[in-house]
Amino acid sequence: MKLNRLIAALGAVLLLLPTLAGCAQNPGQTSSSSPSASPYEAPEVSIQWDEATATKITLSGGTAQCGSSAVSVDGGVITIQTAGDYLISGELTDGQIVVDAGKEDTVRLILSNASISCSDSAAIYARQAGQTVVLLASGTQNTLSDGADYTYAEGEDEPDAALFAKDDLTIAGEGALQVTGNYNNGIGTKDNLVIQGGSLAIAAANDGLRGRDSVTVLGGEISIDAGGNGIRSNNDEDPEKGWISLLGGDFTITAGQDGIQAETNLTISGGTYAITTGGGAESVGHTSGGDPPAAQPGRQGEAGTPPAKPQGDAALSGESASLPSLPAPMASPTLEDSSASDSCKGLKAGSSLAVTGGDFQLDCADDAVHTNGDLTVESGAFAISTGDDGFHADGALTINGGTISILQSYEGLEGSTVEINGGDIQLTASDDGVNAAGGSYGDNWDSFRADGSHFVRITGGTLWVDAQGDGLDSNGGLYLDGGTVLISGPTGNGNGALDYDGECLVTGGVLLAAGSSGMAQGPSASSNQNSLMITFLESQAAGTLVNLSDSQGRSILTFAPSKAFQSLVISSPELVQGEEYTLSTGGSCEDGQNGYYGSGVYTGGTKLCQVTLSDTMTTISSDGTVLSGNMGGGFGVGRGNRGQRPANG
């Protein structure tokens, strides 16, 4: 089967991901379906070739020599007219390799220490072929570069990349390729782009890699320094196209806009990724207490035009010794100085995004992982710093596994619905830790209030939250069915460790939610698991141990919130109605992690009170006084200080 047919088949399968990843769930049900790894296996291109049978093209200054009738040489323009293997070596100082073969032909360009530069167009231009393969000979160093200005025939606007193909393009082999796209993109194709292997170093004024219909990467080492997007598939006319599938590879990407952007679906099943966008998280000015970024990039697809052609002599921003230098592209956008259409996300998809493996280091001015549809994480390791959300889905956000560390964010996890079924998650947020709202807020927060379509559900895994805003915020229901949830929430009384607009039902797992008392909420009395909510008479210092022991002196749990707190919600399967418990602070405990010591040995604390659980939800003051309901001390008014939230895109 031809490459384009196989890739089209994968595109059709990827269209099913939104239904697999985020079918609307009854809040009383747990999502059981999730997208599997892509079934697509890209047809492997053989990297073997026979020097004896390959057509040899020897580049020499401003021209080339070739003895085959399949190749025409007109000054610096070398045109290949038929299928076959073409061995290219030497240096072409100002010229171009043109592939103009039959519509079904496969043309393989074997680069063997080849250097091609063109001052007014692409270095390699595959005008027509069924498939063009650029094969990097083992042990060789190859370079391609174009000029800052192109000369087009009347009515033409192609090529627009240093290496450009109108049809399918595959890059394979064990050699190295350095590409400098001074005019616009580094490597681009109007159809499907496949990277099978090789060591690629790409510097581009706009996008590093662009496959209009799709991009598939199976392996290789890829370094990109781009003024626009690092990797992009941009077909917005056919819903079966515009997707990216990353099955492996080692990526280092510095991008002025998005790191990896798919117009429709983005699937990642392996590889390592070090991605910096828009100058990184530190380019965005955050203040504590939930103030949003100064500006918010626009929606998927708005930043679709290439930047102005570069001017000046400065090199591209970013550090990579292997990358070529070129005239500086547009200034890397940051949220402070960008227009509303700029987007500086790490991983971005228009329809759906699914991660089933990989190792990610993301430093982004905008959302680190973003989709306008559903987002599913099955596994993978994430280290994230972001100027906005760590993970954002306009649709359903589902995390089934993986290790996620969000070191800096505006909000850690956000979706129309948020489901956590497994994994190890640690996040720090200047506003909400987890937020079920989704969509684009604009200026109207009330449009998302008490909406039954929004909920947060946690069934497993470990979630540790350090939030200046709400710890868990659901503009609907909050459901805790399992796992371990540890919250060091807000110190200000305008937010709470738990904030929900419907009901909070606890049926399993461990919940420890510490924060301020003014807006504190506890679980609903209709929960199946017992809970205790404590309002302390005085604010407790960060790191203060709080212990709850049973009537036999056995420690049920010990927790040390990472920030000052005056309210604490405790829910555990160990809590039994009618039993008496002792509440203590201070002292010491053994074998803790992230402030949680479980039932570890606790000694030396100060007893505050004894409490008998009288109901599913028992609310007390720290001196033992029983309070009514499941609300905190009541220092504030209303449901929290939301502030002005930027529109998501």
TrEMBL record:
Biased composition (Low complexity): 314-335
Swiss-Prot/TrEMBL keywords: Signal
PROSITE patterns tied to this protein: PROKAR_LIPOPROTEIN
A Pfam family per the record: Cthe_2159
InterPro entries (UniProt xref): Cthe_2159 (IPR025584)
Signal peptide: 1-24
Source superkingdom: Bacteria
Keyword Signal listed: yes
Region feature (Disordered): 279-343
Keyword Signal found: yes
Protein's recorded name: Carbohydrate-binding domain-containing protein
Organism: uncultured Anaerotruncus sp
Organism lineage string: Bacteria, Bacillati, Bacillota, Clostridia, Eubacteriales
